[in-house]
Specification:
By secondary structure, the chain is α+β, with helices and mostly antiparallel strands. Helices cover about 30% and strands about 30% of the residues. It has two helices and twelve strands; from the N terminus they run αββββββββββββα. Bound molecules: dinuclear copper ion.
Length: about 190
């Protein structure tokens, strides 16, 4: 049998438990907000991990981005690395050739000012900042030609700064790669 007094005690207990949960919820929300704030500030103020640099003044003289090393390279694991440079007002190579259904690593930098690199029909959209290497993974599902415009205003010739990506099937790429160390589709 329950009495009026029992009801009163039950209510008090329920209220206490409720308050405890409210406090816990506030603590959790506060903790999440704190984490988000910390991560946001940390990312905005700290340099990214794995920042790679490339001196724009010596790109053409030595290192990874010398002209003879630009274009697409077939790696021993079957993946492809593409190296490219943006400069006022073109990309080198002007035409990038890659195989379909293959992991491709795009590595690019700028020889002068900030450029943008966008490949139509993909989620590739990055900035080429002088002094830094931009690296993006990409995989093309279908063969065909894709336009690659500069999407960052870089001077009077910006509108005319276009490149192209040609995706060929794996067999065709293998054939090209057997003949040359670095591939492009520049005629
Ligand atoms: Cu280069 Cu706009």
């Amino acid at each position: 049998m329950t009495t009026e007094a029992d009801h009163g005690i039950g209510e008090a207990v329920a209220a206490r438990i409720e308050r405890r949960w409210v406090t816990l919820s506030i603590v959790i929300v506060g903790l999440l907000v704190g984490m988000a704030t910390y991560i946001g500030i940390h990312q905005a103020t700290m340099p990214q991990g794995h920042v790679e640099t490339a001196d724009p003044k010596t790109l053409h003289l030595s290192g990874e981005f010398v002209e003879s090393n630009l274009g697409s390279a077939l790696e021993t694991d079957g993946s492809v690395t593409v190296r490219a440079i943006g400069q006022q007002y073109s990309f080198t190579p002007q035409c990038v050739v890659v195989p379909s259904d293959t992991p491709v690593k795009l590595r690019a930098t700028s020889a002068d000012v900030v450029h943008g690199l966008l490949i139509e029909g993909t989620n590739i959209n990055t900035m080429l900042v002088p002094g830094y290497v931009s690296e993006l993974p990409v995989r093309f599902r279908t063969t065909g030609d894709f336009v690659m415009p500069c999407q960052e205003f870089c001077g009077v010739g910006h509108q005319g700064m276009w490149g192209k990506v040609r995706v060929v099937d794996q067999a065709e790429f293998q054939k090209l790669a057997a003949a040359r160390r670095r591939l492009t589709c520049v005629d």
